[in-house]
What we know:
heterodimer, A: alpha/beta, eleven-stranded mixed beta sheet, 16 helices, 11 strands, about 15% strand, B: mainly alpha, 2 helices
Amino acid sequence: xxxxALMTLAAASAALSAGRVSxxxxxxxxxxRIGDWGAVTNAFIDLRAExxxxxxxxxxxxxAAGGRRGPLHGIPLAHKDMIYRQGRISTCxxxxxxxxxAPVTATVLARLDAAxxxxxxxxxxxxxxxxxxxxxxxxxxxxxxxxxxxxTGGSSSGAGxxxxxxxVFGALGSxxxxxxxxxxxxxxxxxxxxxxxxxxxxxxxxxxxxxxxLGPLARTAEDCALILTxxxxxxxxxxxxxxxxAFRVPSAVDxxxxxxxxxxxxxxxxxxxxxxxxxxxxxxxxxxxARIVPVAIPDLQDIADxxxxxxxxxxATIHRQFMRDRPEDYAPDLFxxxxxxxxxxxxxYADALRVxxxxxxxxxxxxxxxxxxxxxxxxxxxxxxxxxxRIAQAADFARVHGPMVRHMRPFNYLGLPVLxxxxxxxxxxxxxxFQLVGRPMGDAALLAAGMAWQRATDWHDHAPALEQAxx
Amino acid sequence: xxQPQARVAEIAADLPPLLARVRAAVDRIATFEDxxxxxxxxxxxxRP
Lengths: 471, 48
């Protein structure tokens, strides 16, 4: 494979700085790939080609005058269609917002604009960010570029597909119960869910305030770090970021200095095929010199239950008026999963919130006293087909969606930073991944470890080919 | 029964055991002084 769109964000940025490529060339390359892959994957909701080219020309002029703003200047990105730009439609994956124009621009988009990134448009997502697969009855399903018959993962489905097919150099998604990590895992790209409170959510669609995080999907951990550098940090419009510090791309870490804890109970739940890939990934870590030790997250079922209560109640609260006024405009399953939130006692919700700090301390004592980072499966099953994961009846949700989110959801409740790193291909030729979990607010150290892993492996270099993707 | 009704019924049936488990977990973990605002403080205290 050749062509500037196939470079990593970091490499494209270096090429821009050296004058070997222009922002217009990068944007045209991305647009050409969107032309090839867009219909196959259904990754874009609103492509803004002319605006992007105009921004690229402006970036080139500024760079030529010696004014390169930083590593994202002139780099084409696109973002999940729930990250608002003032005056533009943000569908949030629902017909209810089919013509709704955002009153504000999200802080993260304003920061990317200030960094000079090129915005190619908005990306497919699951309805209201409420699903794990990439199905959407309003906009059609997102399709995995490795095999369009299979799911992209969700809810940041277009972000996963567009980064994997090299239509963009990176994308922002959101993660309430795995919605960055699931598409990153299914599509074979790198996804980063930051610590809760590191990245402002101002100007984005809420799914569950206590759990929501915004973060990047890109080809490498280094690329994720470059995007995070632009978007992370304190924002007066989102008080949860009050403690956030400015983020810098971390310096290299020696893997031999790392102790990685393997969550043995989660690992045991992987199917044999996925388990073998995870063991291979652990062997690769061992070859870097990292020490591998078994660990167990205490209270794992409790964490899942507490997280579930928070998620169901906050989701129902956010959607109460739309559910009352326009119930027919919800996918039946999403409506059905949201309604029980109205029947959970306020004391149960408050309990789930008030023990969150204590639970985090228990996990830190049990896990991070023994290791620097935690290794866990991403999705413990092979990437399912779109047909087998379509929810036709209630039992379908538990059968496919349950396993997909089971190992993701706890880390949202704990507010921990998590990387999803590709580590091979399942028997169907679809990507598999593991999660690497950092200490509370240990985002920089986690990304440094991910960068070290990707210096020692090449799974992140694999890209789907169009001939692999039958129409 | 429609699909949303079936899903609501299924989750509604799950609610009592879910809430019982949450109560048991909170009884085991929580202290009298625990409050939601302790979480950001714990994050900060535990940062590397």
